Predict the 3D structure of the following.
Amino acid sequence: MGTRTLLCGVGSLSDDLVARLRARGHLVEAVDPSLLVARTDAANAVDAAAGSLGAVDLVVHVLAGPDGPTPLVDLSTDAWVDSCEDPMVGALHLLQACRSHLGAGSRVVHVVPTSAMGGAPGFAATSTAAEGFRALNKSVARQWGADGITTAVVAVAPELLLGPAASSAGGALTGPALGRTGGADDLAGIVDALASPEAAFTTGSTIVADGGTWMAP
Amino acid sequence: MSTDRGVGLLEGRVALITGGAAGIGLGIATAMAREGAAVVLAARRIENGEPAAKALRDAGHRALCVRCDVTSRIDLESAVAATIDGFDRLDCFVHNAVGGSATPGPLEEVDDGWLGLLATTVRASFDAAQVAHPHLAAAGGSFLLLTSAAGMEGSANLPVYAMVKASQRALAKSLSREWGPDGIRVNCIAPVARTPAMERAYLANPELEERLVGRTPLRRIGEPTEDVGPVAVFLASNLARFVTGQTVVVDGGGFLGL
């Protein structure tokens, strides 16, 4: 039986990831992130998706960002809420709703831009949420590890989640060691590997999947 | 209140500290005042903040208290306006206040009480940044956020606290890059220090202090004024003029994974 995957995300990377995971044999049910802000809606959406899958082996939450950069001083409060606070609230609600559907061997993966760790001018709100995702992932690893549930973060090149304007936002001195920033197929391979029992002894860690640009610890 | 004097590292500078009435906020304010800064204690309850400000004044420092609930944008604007009215400039905005519920426990049991935590940390950092920016740019100043090692290593006990504290650190990094060209530095301090909140935690969990001290190479808990304050002074001063986007962990070596 294929990996039963509940995936929450919006945008082309998320859409492509669904297709690539299905191609790898995953059974994928998608949850719309806009449903996560209200706790009851989140629970209903997750219960419906998990009901279709039977059980959940893998939860993937892909953080979405705005299409273009805005300096923080020019950002409206609504835009801040959309790009920072709502995603953080949604990340919490998603995991709360998923908990009863997870068991030993299940994996929780958050996909964030590397700007969580390095910052990105013009994308402060999403980068702020992204680092919140990473800390939530670590805390969940510590809380749920005793039940055999593991977690991981996959950090991808900012432009994959934040659009082409983010390509120079990372401030890297050099381009990716592998010559490209990657895409959904690269991400699907890593996510699929993380869902394997062979990877089950890593938890709470961040795997940087940007072709070798960000190499800090 | 000690009348200790420093060497004038912040002479002529003005700092506003949220949550300045007690604990780490007051420790930072006191250390900055000793180094010559005029300090504004932004306090949710004026009856707590004003005695602290008076004690600083009685010790010969320049200090005032303003009432400020950091979840109110209007209060933050008023606090900055009062700072400019009182001392003509703002060189350092320290967002230290934290409120709301961070009750220890399983993630599944976190209720909407945590939204207060989100408001006092994440939203207030956003509002404070926007409100303070023009004054910090005019002064070539700095923005300082109080975060926590919990945000770096995660926390089994306080998962949403870890989340908001991590996110503040990321905000500091992005802002350091946006505001560097404006001459503004943005940094974080991640302290462990003896505060009223920590004393309450000790009462609820008597083994906590022993455990904390046991994991700390320097074998003690920090003091807000003597241990955390000087690091804030450094980051606000010209000594740190080429330091931005950084987190200084001030915890006696308890967390070494940065």
About this structure: Chain A touches chain B through 46 residues (CB under 8 Å). The longest helix of chain A spans residues 77-98.
